[in-house]
Design brief:
Elements: H1 2-10, H2 17-42, H3 51-90, H4 95-99, H5 102-143, H6 147-161, E1 166-172, E2 179-186, E3 197-199, H7 205-211, E4 215-217, E5 239-245, E6 250-257, H8 267-311, H9 316-330, E7 335-341, E8 348-356, E9 367-369, H10 374-381, E10 385-388, H11 396-401, E11 409-417, E12 420-428, H12 432-437, H13 439-481, H14 486-501, E13 503-512, E14 515-522, H15 526-530, E15 534-535, H16 539-547, E16 551-553, H17 565-570, E17 577-584, E18 587-597, H18 604-644, H19 650-658, E19 669-681, H20 683-712, E20 716-720, E21 724-729, H21 738-764, E22 769-786, E23 789-795, H22 797-808, E24 816-819, H23 820-825, E25 832-838, E26 847-852
Parallel strand pairs: 22-24
Antiparallel strand pairs: 1-2, 1-6, 2-3, 4-5, 5-6, 7-8, 7-12, 8-9, 10-11, 11-12, 13-14, 13-18, 14-15, 16-17, 17-18, 19-21, 19-22, 20-21, 22-23, 24-26, 25-26
Length: 856
């Protein structure tokens, strides 16, 4: 050992560069020089003249060669130091090489760099693989819209990244989130079939969902978090469960394991998978949003088509089938049907319409009692019921509508209008998941179906009402044109009733001396009927005449007031009856009775129509009876009008006549009127100049023109005031246009002055100037005076104000002045010019006065 140590100490392998340089110098310079000198002395060649020159030259070359070699070794030594210093900061190094062997030190440094470079290259290769995987996944977003493909490819790439061979992708179900559904699987065989449900509470994956963080299990048998051994489905004791996190929540998990039990997963594997799964979850979320948007777009298109269908001319089955077709485009079902309440029996449901893609066991119009069935629960609870077909149905309606070989499930949805259920919608072979996914759309469709049903109902009611109105119109025409042919009129009316309500028979009875006699009939021998006298109170007709109330009975022979006398006399069989009274001035004068409706049962609409007909017939009978009284009253009215209309406005005459039978006189009223006062300027000097006779002629013409203008604009002339008059607008009947009418009348009066002045110029060789004032205010209007002399006139502050306003007209000849209240009361906007303020009384606020600007 001592000799080996001594040998290692002096071995050239363990020496430095400068030691080796000195050795090289000795071997290549000193030894050859000494040898040359030895042979030069021995063989006496030193005396040669050129030998010293040669020797000096050789020494110079040796010296330069040594310097070059020395610089080279200095460079190598510097490189060794720099490399050693740089590598020493990051890599471990050998102490021996650090002391003596620069070449070994350089080799070791480069070997360390090579090793580190290999590690970096492996790391870069791994990162490159990750980036390539992410790029593939990113590219996949543009190539596929299938979330299942995305999950499978994500699982495949994840297994590749962590060198695993078993995994699954599971998505939480919606909306319950109480189970995972396996959407993609690799290597799990029977434990991981696609579509398998794994209950949330039984799965270790729930920890990844609840914590929203990756779950790394190195050994499940020793992991204190779970306390249970590995199951076959996990494949190994070590596995990773990564959450798939969307923008808002965790949507599922990705589980990964290896068949190689000796290899365990580490945090590095989790870090490798994190960006991949983040991108996958983001993409899955985007695909889900795209699907939702596409579904919403389809729903909006269908809802638009449905709205247009409802507002179109489609009706009945055509409309329903158009709606069913749009539903089919968005909801997967095999049969859709609408059930409605039976018009004749509300305890039954009737198949109103349906559209089927499978054989059916029912038809349109089929009616079934629904008591005690699933449909009863839907109607009572007012919410949808999902019905599985594989069960023992007890009721007839369930057996006929739900028990079907190709019907695996049925969704029953209540149809509500204005808070009341009007029917049930059935969707066959739709899964609960599809129901949940489309619940909003299904509810909207239900609302639109209700609208369609209501539209059909309203159209049917409208058509029926139009028919009824047409019937009433024809009956009215007949009644108005046959006032003195009562027998023909009543016979025609009964025929119209037969057509409108579609019954087997009917008759009309009138009360004569406390008994009912047959006046008209159809499908009966009237002569036989007229031999029958029904006392009031006997039979259903007698009961109706006595009580004055209509009667509907669908089982006539069981009715307590049914007599059967008509059936015995005519051989007719009465099953159902609708009877209504004919009432005039609070007294029953007859009864109309119809028998045995051909289709369905008598309804409230039938009763309403027959009552309307009975009213029309009653009016016709009363008109015939009161005709002469009406003629006499008309003659009396014409006489009254002829006498009084010369002195009292027409409206007042109408009121007197209509109130002539009342005990008291026409009472005074407190009303808001518009008052118009017209006055001739400079009348007194003019009257003196032309004399009384021409003054009267001139005034009569003036009042005639101006008074007719007042009447044309729905006003009345209240009182003549010598050279003018006061007109009222709004009495005795007021309207919203009273102020407008007054202004328009004044404007027309102003325009009519040209014609009046032409007359005055020709008759009295003079022209008139007028003043027009208009004011709106509260007055007392009515008969003012005493018993022997009364006038229909007005009194109040507004009357005084319109006369005071007339005084301002002196400054505005032939102009029209309006008070502020009239301007506000008028609906129209006139061209006005404010001329100042004026007060009615000193205690009240002033009013603005306007001048009506007339176009030239």
């Amino acid at each position: 050992m001592h000799s080996k140590a001594w040998f290692d100490q002096y071995s050239i392998e363990n020496k430095g560069l400068y030691y080796k340089l000195s050795l090289i110098f000795g071997l290549f310079f000193i030894v050859p020089v000494l040898g040359f000198l030895y042979f030069a002395v021995k063989y006496e060649i030193l005396y040669d003249d050129y030998l010293p020159l040669f020797f000096v030259t050789l020494l110079i070359f040796f010296f330069f060669g040594f310097n070059i070699l020395r610089r080279l070794f200095d460079s190598i030594h510097a490189i060794s130091k720099n490399v050693s210093r740089g590598v020493a900061e990051d890599l471990p190094r050998t102490s021996t090489a650090e002391k003596v062997n620069e070449f070994d030190q350089i080799i070791q440094a480069f070997q360390s760099l090579e090793c580190e470079l290999k590690n970096k290259l492996q790391h870069l290769d791994r990162k490159s693989t990750e980036l390539a995987t992410l790029k593939e996944l990113s590219d996949l977003c543009y190539m596929t819209y299938n979330s299942e493909d995305l999950l499978y490819l994500t699982l495949e790439r994840a297994l590749k990244l962590v060198d695993a061979d078993i995994g699954s992708a599971m998505i939480l179900n919606r909306p319950g989130r109480d189970a995972f559904i396996i959407e993609a699987t690799i290597g799990l065989s029977e434990f991981g079939k696609k579509g398998t449900e794994v209950f949330f509470d039984d799965s270790i994956a729930r920890y990844a969902v609840l914590n929203k963080a990756p779950l790394l299990v190195e050994n499940i048998e020793t992991d204190e978090r779970f306390g249970r051994q590995a199951r076959a489905r996990y494949a190994t004791k070590s596995f990773i469960c990564m959450p798939l996190k969307s923008m808002h929540d965790v949507i599922g998990v990705l589980t990964i394991s290896r068949r190689k039990a000796e290899r365990i997963f580490t945090q590095a594997d989790v870090d490798v998978l994190t960006p991949l799964l983040g991108s996958a979850a983001f993409t899955y979320d985007n695909l889900s949003l795209m699907k939702e948007n596409e579904t919403l777009r389809k729903h909006l298109i269908s809802l638009g088509m449905i709205s247009r269908s409802i507002t179109s001319s489609l009706k009945g089955s055509e409309l329903m089938h158009a709606l069913f077709q749009e539903m089919k485009k968005n909801i997967p079902f095999d049969l859709v049907a609408i059930l409605g309440f039976d018009a004749n029996n509300t305890r039954n449901l009737t198949v109103m319409d349906y559209m089927s893609f499978i054989p059916v066991t029912f038809n349109r119009g089929d009616s079934f009692p629904y008591g005690g069935s699933f449909f009863d629960a839907v109607i009572k609870q007012l919410h949808a019921v999902f019905i599985e077909a594989k069960q023992d149905f007890k009721t007839i309606i369930e057996q006929r509508l739900l028990q079907h070989e190709e019907a695996h499930s049925t969704l029953a949805i209540p149809l509500k209008a204005e808070g009341k259920i009007i029917g049930v919608l059935l969707l066959y072979n739709i899964s609960q998941d599809e129901w949940i996914n489309h619940v909003d759309f299904i509810n909207l469709m239900s609302d639109h179906l209700v609208e369609a049903m209501e539209k059909d109902r309203m159209l049917g009611a409208m058509i029926k009402r139009d028919q009824e109105l047409e019937t009433l119109r024809l009956i009215g025409i007949t009644l108005s044109s046959s006032m003195f042919r009562l027998a023909e009129m009543l016979s025609y009316t009964m025929e119209m009733i037969k057509t409108a309500i579609d019954v087997e028979a009917g008759y009309l009875l009138l009360i004569e001396k406390d008994a009912l006699t047959f006046a008209a009939a159809f499908n009966f021998d009237l002569d036989k009927l007229q031999r029958i006298k029904l006392p009031q109170g006997e039979g259903i007709a007698g009961y109706v005449a006595h009580r004055g109330l209509p009667v509907i009975t669908h089982q006539a022979r069981r009715h307590p007031h049914f007599s059967g006398i008509v059936d015995r006399e005519t051989g007719f069989t009465t099953r159902s009856i609708l009877a209504v009274p004919m009432i005039s001035q609070g007294h029953v004068i007859g009864v109309i009775e119809i028998l045995n409706k051909k289709e369905g049962l008598f309804t409230a609409e039938d009763e309403q129509l027959l009552q309307s007909v009975a009213t029309s017939v009653t009016i016709a009978l009363e008109n015939a009876r009161l005709y002469e009284e009406t003629v006499a009253m008309a003659e009396k009215e014409r006489g009254i009008r002829h006498v009084f209309q010369k002195f009292v406005p027409k409206a007042v005459v109408d009121k007197i006549i209509t109130g002539s039978d009342q005990d008291g006189p026409i009472i005074e009223e407190f009303k808001t009127l518009t008052l118009l006062n017209i006055d001739i300027r400079g009348f007194s000097p003019l009257a003196k100049k032309i004399g009384p006779q021409k003054t009267v002629a001139m005034l009569n013409h003036f009042f005639s023109v101006m008074g007719n203008i007042v009447f044309d604009h729905h006003g009345i002339v209240d009182k003549y005031l010598g050279d003018g008059f006061l007109a009222l607008f709004g009495a005795p009947a007021a309207s919203a246009d009273d102020a407008d009418n007054a202004v328009l009348a004044a404007r027309e009066m102003r325009q009519a002055m040209a014609e009046v002045n032409r007359f005055c110029k020709s008759q009295i060789d003079a022209e008139l100037t007028i003043g027009l004032s208009i004011h709106t205010g509260e007055v007392v209007v009515g008969n003012i005076g005493f018993e022997k002399k009364m006038d229909y006139t007005v009194i109040g502050d507004a009357v005084n104000f319109v006369f005071k306003l007339q005084a301002l007209c002196k400054e505005w000849p032939n102009d029209i002045l309006l008070s502020e209240t009239t301007v506000h009361a008028a609906k129209s906007r006139f061209d006005l010019d404010q001329i100042g303020l004026f007060e009615i009384e000193s205690a009240r606020e002033k009013l603005k006065i306007y001048r009506l600007v007339l176009n030239a």
